[in-house]
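#struct-help
A.M.: can someone run this one for me? Single chain, 104 residues.
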Amino acid sequence: MHESTQASALIEGLTLVSLIGDKGYDNDGFRVQLAEAEIDAVIPPLGSRTAAIAYDENAYGLRHRIECFINKIKHYRRIATRYEKTACSFFSMLCLAAAMIWLR
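D.P.: on it. Structure tokens below:
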């Protein structure tokens, strides 16, 4: 089952200004739910749509950069397997991995 079928339940009760997603989340029902909740949808339209839907391409580009960074962090085994027991120590290791990536 695709995540887009569960996205509606995940955003219930959250206070959001905008939601950034990939083309897999482009369906009319989800877009209507976001519009009713006054949430700006930053979701590029599927190629099969006949009418183009506008979205913030700059915000979507930042999403790509974040996903690339998460992929780089996963190369550090301690982060990927979440060895740390507390949130504070996990955040510390995350900062250390981010610094190592930045120094490359």
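A.M.: thanks! The radius of gyration is 17 Å.
D.P.: also worth noting: The mean pLDDT is 88.
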